[in-house]
Target: NAD-dependent protein deacylase
Amino acid sequence: MGKIVVLSGAGLSAESGLGTFRDAGGIWSRYDLNDVATPEGFARDPSQVHAFYNARRANLAGARPNAAHAALARLQAARGATLVTQNVDTLLEQAGANDVLHMHGRLDRAKCAACGHDWDAPLAMQAEDPCPACAARATRPDIVWFGEMPKELDIIEARIAAADLFVAIGTSGTVYPAAGFVDMARACGVATLELNLEASGSVFDRGIYGPASEIVPAWVA
Ligand code: BJW
Model:
Protein backbone atom coordinates (compact mmCIF):
# COMPACT_ATOMS: atom_id res chain seq x y z
CA MET A 1 0.00 0.00 0.00
CA GLY A 2 2.98 2.40 0.39
CA LYS A 3 2.49 5.70 2.20
CA ILE A 4 -1.00 6.10 3.66
CA VAL A 5 -2.80 9.24 4.86
CA VAL A 6 -6.04 8.69 6.79
CA LEU A 7 -8.55 11.53 7.32
CA SER A 8 -11.19 10.77 9.94
CA GLY A 9 -14.46 12.47 10.86
CA ALA A 10 -17.23 12.15 13.41
CA GLY A 11 -18.38 8.75 12.06
CA LEU A 12 -15.17 7.21 13.46
CA SER A 13 -16.28 8.04 17.01
CA ALA A 14 -20.04 7.54 16.53
CA GLU A 15 -19.98 4.02 17.96
CA SER A 16 -18.07 5.32 21.00
CA GLY A 17 -21.17 7.38 21.83
CA LEU A 18 -19.97 10.76 20.54
CA GLY A 19 -22.57 12.27 18.23
CA THR A 20 -21.99 13.14 14.59
CA PHE A 21 -22.92 16.61 13.31
CA ARG A 22 -25.12 16.19 10.25
CA ASP A 23 -26.77 12.77 10.64
CA ALA A 24 -30.42 12.69 11.82
CA GLY A 25 -30.44 13.82 15.47
CA GLY A 26 -26.85 15.08 15.07
CA ILE A 27 -25.26 17.95 16.97
CA TRP A 28 -26.27 20.60 14.40
CA SER A 29 -29.93 19.56 14.69
CA ARG A 30 -29.81 20.46 18.41
CA TYR A 31 -27.50 23.51 18.36
CA ASP A 32 -27.18 26.46 15.99
CA LEU A 33 -23.59 26.31 14.73
CA ASN A 34 -23.56 30.12 14.41
CA ASP A 35 -24.04 30.33 18.18
CA VAL A 36 -21.55 27.69 19.33
CA ALA A 37 -18.95 27.20 16.57
CA THR A 38 -18.03 30.68 15.33
CA PRO A 39 -15.83 33.45 16.80
CA GLU A 40 -18.86 35.76 16.49
CA GLY A 41 -20.99 33.40 18.61
CA PHE A 42 -18.25 33.31 21.25
CA ALA A 43 -18.01 37.12 21.28
CA ARG A 44 -21.82 37.38 21.72
CA ASP A 45 -22.20 34.78 24.48
CA PRO A 46 -19.03 33.09 25.75
CA SER A 47 -20.86 31.24 28.53
CA GLN A 48 -23.21 29.55 26.01
CA VAL A 49 -20.19 28.37 23.99
CA HIS A 50 -18.38 27.12 27.11
CA ALA A 51 -21.52 25.26 28.25
CA PHE A 52 -21.62 23.49 24.85
CA TYR A 53 -17.95 22.44 24.99
CA ASN A 54 -18.02 21.63 28.74
CA ALA A 55 -20.85 19.17 28.00
CA ARG A 56 -18.91 17.68 25.05
CA ARG A 57 -15.82 17.31 27.32
CA ALA A 58 -17.90 15.54 29.99
CA ASN A 59 -19.33 13.24 27.31
CA LEU A 60 -15.81 12.46 26.07
CA ALA A 61 -14.68 11.62 29.64
CA GLY A 62 -17.16 8.72 29.64
CA ALA A 63 -16.33 7.52 26.10
CA ARG A 64 -13.90 4.77 25.12
CA PRO A 65 -12.13 4.11 21.80
CA ASN A 66 -13.85 1.55 19.57
CA ALA A 67 -12.36 -1.14 17.33
CA ALA A 68 -11.86 1.37 14.49
CA HIS A 69 -9.66 3.67 16.63
CA ALA A 70 -7.63 0.62 17.74
CA ALA A 71 -7.21 -0.56 14.14
CA LEU A 72 -5.92 2.86 13.03
CA ALA A 73 -3.44 2.94 15.93
CA ARG A 74 -2.18 -0.48 14.76
CA LEU A 75 -1.96 0.78 11.16
CA GLN A 76 0.14 3.73 12.28
CA ALA A 77 2.48 1.53 14.35
CA ALA A 78 2.87 -1.08 11.60
CA ARG A 79 2.92 1.11 8.47
CA GLY A 80 3.74 4.63 9.66
CA ALA A 81 0.39 5.91 8.39
CA THR A 82 -0.32 9.62 8.88
CA LEU A 83 -3.48 10.08 10.97
CA VAL A 84 -5.31 13.34 10.31
CA THR A 85 -8.56 13.93 12.18
CA GLN A 86 -11.28 16.55 12.12
CA ASN A 87 -12.43 15.18 15.48
CA VAL A 88 -11.76 17.16 18.63
CA ASP A 89 -11.91 14.03 20.81
CA THR A 90 -8.77 12.13 21.85
CA LEU A 91 -9.98 8.57 21.24
CA LEU A 92 -7.24 7.82 18.68
CA GLU A 93 -4.61 8.76 21.28
CA GLN A 94 -6.44 6.69 23.92
CA ALA A 95 -6.26 3.75 21.50
CA GLY A 96 -2.45 4.16 21.33
CA ALA A 97 -1.93 6.41 18.29
CA ASN A 98 0.85 9.03 18.34
CA ASP A 99 1.24 12.26 16.41
CA VAL A 100 -2.40 12.60 15.42
CA LEU A 101 -2.87 15.79 13.36
CA HIS A 102 -5.93 17.45 14.92
CA MET A 103 -6.86 19.93 12.20
CA HIS A 104 -9.94 21.24 14.08
CA GLY A 105 -8.27 21.41 17.51
CA ARG A 106 -8.78 19.37 20.68
CA LEU A 107 -11.40 19.39 23.44
CA ASP A 108 -8.71 18.78 26.07
CA ARG A 109 -6.90 22.05 25.27
CA ALA A 110 -7.72 25.64 26.24
CA LYS A 111 -6.49 28.77 24.45
CA CYS A 112 -6.17 32.43 25.40
CA ALA A 113 -8.06 34.60 22.90
CA ALA A 114 -5.79 37.52 23.88
CA CYS A 115 -2.24 36.09 23.55
CA GLY A 116 -2.76 32.69 21.88
CA HIS A 117 -1.13 30.68 24.68
CA ASP A 118 -2.62 27.17 24.97
CA TRP A 119 -2.76 24.75 27.88
CA ASP A 120 -4.49 21.61 29.23
CA ALA A 121 -8.19 22.29 29.64
CA PRO A 122 -9.95 21.53 32.90
CA LEU A 123 -13.16 19.49 32.61
CA ALA A 124 -15.21 22.68 33.00
CA MET A 125 -13.96 26.06 31.71
CA GLN A 126 -15.23 29.61 31.58
CA ALA A 127 -14.03 32.72 29.77
CA GLU A 128 -13.08 34.34 33.09
CA ASP A 129 -10.45 31.67 33.85
CA PRO A 130 -7.14 33.59 33.76
CA CYS A 131 -4.55 32.74 31.10
CA PRO A 132 -1.51 31.12 32.79
CA ALA A 133 0.81 33.18 30.52
CA CYS A 134 -0.71 36.68 30.35
CA ALA A 135 -3.51 36.59 32.99
CA ALA A 136 -6.10 37.87 30.48
CA ARG A 137 -9.61 36.57 31.17
CA ALA A 138 -10.39 35.51 27.59
CA THR A 139 -10.22 31.72 27.83
CA ARG A 140 -11.75 29.72 24.98
CA PRO A 141 -11.64 26.10 23.84
CA ASP A 142 -8.71 25.38 21.47
CA ILE A 143 -11.18 24.45 18.73
CA VAL A 144 -11.19 25.63 15.10
CA TRP A 145 -14.51 27.36 14.46
CA PHE A 146 -16.07 28.34 11.13
CA GLY A 147 -14.10 31.16 9.56
CA GLU A 148 -10.90 30.20 11.41
CA MET A 149 -7.83 28.60 9.85
CA PRO A 150 -7.55 24.83 10.44
CA LYS A 151 -4.32 23.62 12.04
CA GLU A 152 -1.41 21.66 10.50
CA LEU A 153 -2.55 22.35 6.91
CA ASP A 154 0.96 22.62 5.44
CA ILE A 155 2.06 19.25 6.78
CA ILE A 156 -1.27 17.58 5.90
CA GLU A 157 -1.15 18.79 2.29
CA ALA A 158 2.50 17.77 1.92
CA ARG A 159 1.76 14.28 3.28
CA ILE A 160 -1.22 13.87 0.91
CA ALA A 161 0.81 15.00 -2.11
CA ALA A 162 3.52 12.43 -1.26
CA ALA A 163 1.11 9.59 -0.40
CA ASP A 164 0.26 6.42 -2.30
CA LEU A 165 -3.19 6.12 -0.73
CA PHE A 166 -5.60 8.67 0.81
CA VAL A 167 -8.38 7.21 2.96
CA ALA A 168 -11.37 9.18 4.34
CA ILE A 169 -13.25 7.54 7.22
CA GLY A 170 -16.63 8.63 8.63
CA THR A 171 -16.78 12.14 7.23
CA SER A 172 -19.60 13.70 5.20
CA GLY A 173 -17.16 15.78 3.14
CA THR A 174 -19.08 19.01 3.69
CA VAL A 175 -16.55 21.12 5.60
CA TYR A 176 -13.61 22.69 3.76
CA PRO A 177 -10.68 22.55 3.48
CA ALA A 178 -10.86 18.88 4.62
CA ALA A 179 -13.62 18.18 2.05
CA GLY A 180 -11.17 19.17 -0.71
CA PHE A 181 -8.40 16.76 0.30
CA VAL A 182 -9.79 13.94 -1.86
CA ASP A 183 -9.70 16.16 -4.97
CA MET A 184 -6.17 17.24 -4.10
CA ALA A 185 -5.14 13.59 -3.72
CA ARG A 186 -6.69 12.63 -7.07
CA ALA A 187 -5.01 15.60 -8.78
CA CYS A 188 -1.66 14.35 -7.40
CA GLY A 189 -2.30 10.83 -8.72
CA VAL A 190 -2.87 9.40 -5.23
CA ALA A 191 -5.32 6.46 -4.96
CA THR A 192 -8.40 7.29 -2.87
CA LEU A 193 -10.66 5.16 -0.68
CA GLU A 194 -13.78 6.02 1.31
CA LEU A 195 -14.81 4.04 4.41
CA ASN A 196 -18.22 5.25 5.62
CA LEU A 197 -21.62 4.11 6.77
CA GLU A 198 -22.89 5.17 3.35
CA ALA A 199 -21.44 6.97 0.31
CA SER A 200 -20.79 10.65 1.10
CA GLY A 201 -21.17 11.77 -2.51
CA SER A 202 -17.55 12.85 -2.91
CA VAL A 203 -15.64 11.11 -5.71
CA PHE A 204 -13.30 8.34 -4.51
CA ASP A 205 -11.68 5.55 -6.55
CA ARG A 206 -13.18 2.94 -4.21
CA GLY A 207 -15.59 2.74 -1.27
CA ILE A 208 -16.30 0.27 1.52
CA TYR A 209 -19.55 0.88 3.41
CA GLY A 210 -20.74 -0.14 6.88
CA PRO A 211 -20.14 0.76 10.54
CA ALA A 212 -16.58 1.97 11.18
CA SER A 213 -16.06 -0.53 14.03
CA GLU A 214 -16.50 -3.34 11.48
CA ILE A 215 -15.11 -2.06 8.19
CA VAL A 216 -12.01 -0.26 9.49
CA PRO A 217 -10.52 -3.30 11.34
CA ALA A 218 -11.40 -5.49 8.33
CA TRP A 219 -9.62 -3.08 5.96
CA VAL A 220 -6.55 -2.71 8.22
CA ALA A 221 -6.18 -6.49 8.79
C1 BJW B 1 -20.40 6.72 10.12
C2 BJW B 1 -20.97 6.14 11.23
C3 BJW B 1 -20.41 4.93 11.62
C4 BJW B 1 -22.04 7.93 10.92
N1 BJW B 1 -19.41 4.41 10.92
N2 BJW B 1 -19.40 6.19 9.44
C5 BJW B 1 -14.85 26.59 0.37
C6 BJW B 1 -13.48 26.41 0.56
C7 BJW B 1 -12.88 26.62 1.80
C8 BJW B 1 -13.65 26.98 2.88
C9 BJW B 1 -15.02 27.17 2.71
C10 BJW B 1 -15.60 26.97 1.49
N3 BJW B 1 -16.92 27.22 1.61
C11 BJW B 1 -17.16 27.55 2.89
C12 BJW B 1 -16.02 27.52 3.59
C13 BJW B 1 -15.89 27.84 5.04
C14 BJW B 1 -16.17 26.71 6.00
C15 BJW B 1 -16.93 25.57 5.37
O1 BJW B 1 -16.39 24.59 4.92
N4 BJW B 1 -18.25 25.63 5.38
C16 BJW B 1 -19.05 24.54 4.80
C17 BJW B 1 -20.20 24.21 5.72
C18 BJW B 1 -19.44 24.92 3.39
N5 BJW B 1 -14.89 26.22 6.53
C19 BJW B 1 -14.26 26.87 7.49
O2 BJW B 1 -14.68 27.90 7.97
C20 BJW B 1 -12.96 26.26 7.97
N6 BJW B 1 -11.92 27.23 7.87
C21 BJW B 1 -11.53 27.75 6.70
O3 BJW B 1 -12.06 27.42 5.65
O4 BJW B 1 -10.49 28.65 6.79
C22 BJW B 1 -10.09 29.33 5.60
C23 BJW B 1 -9.40 28.47 4.58
C24 BJW B 1 -9.71 28.63 3.24
C25 BJW B 1 -9.07 27.86 2.27
C26 BJW B 1 -8.11 26.93 2.64
C27 BJW B 1 -7.80 26.80 3.97
C28 BJW B 1 -8.46 27.54 4.95
C29 BJW B 1 -13.05 25.84 9.43
C30 BJW B 1 -13.99 24.71 9.63
C31 BJW B 1 -14.16 24.41 11.11
C32 BJW B 1 -15.15 23.26 11.34
N7 BJW B 1 -15.45 23.16 12.69
C33 BJW B 1 -16.38 22.10 13.13
C34 BJW B 1 -16.84 22.43 14.58
C35 BJW B 1 -15.72 22.58 15.54
C36 BJW B 1 -15.29 21.26 16.13
C37 BJW B 1 -16.25 20.70 17.12
O5 BJW B 1 -16.94 21.45 17.80
O6 BJW B 1 -16.29 19.46 17.23
O7 BJW B 1 -15.75 20.83 13.01
S1 BJW B 1 -17.86 21.93 12.14
C38 BJW B 1 -17.97 20.20 12.30
O8 BJW B 1 -17.92 19.65 10.96
C39 BJW B 1 -16.70 19.75 13.04
C40 BJW B 1 -16.28 18.59 12.18
O9 BJW B 1 -14.89 18.34 12.36
C41 BJW B 1 -16.65 19.01 10.79
C42 BJW B 1 -16.78 17.87 9.81
O10 BJW B 1 -17.85 17.04 10.14
P1 BJW B 1 -17.74 15.46 9.90
O11 BJW B 1 -16.68 14.90 10.75
O12 BJW B 1 -17.66 15.18 8.46
O13 BJW B 1 -19.14 14.96 10.53
P2 BJW B 1 -20.57 14.84 9.82
O14 BJW B 1 -21.58 14.71 10.91
O15 BJW B 1 -20.78 15.88 8.82
O16 BJW B 1 -20.49 13.45 9.02
C43 BJW B 1 -20.44 12.21 9.71
C44 BJW B 1 -20.19 11.11 8.69
O17 BJW B 1 -20.00 9.89 9.40
C45 BJW B 1 -21.37 10.87 7.72
O18 BJW B 1 -20.84 10.74 6.40
C46 BJW B 1 -21.98 9.56 8.20
O19 BJW B 1 -22.49 8.77 7.12
C47 BJW B 1 -20.80 8.88 8.81
N8 BJW B 1 -21.13 7.94 9.89
N9 BJW B 1 -22.01 6.97 11.67
C48 BJW B 1 -18.95 5.09 9.81
N10 BJW B 1 -20.92 4.26 12.69
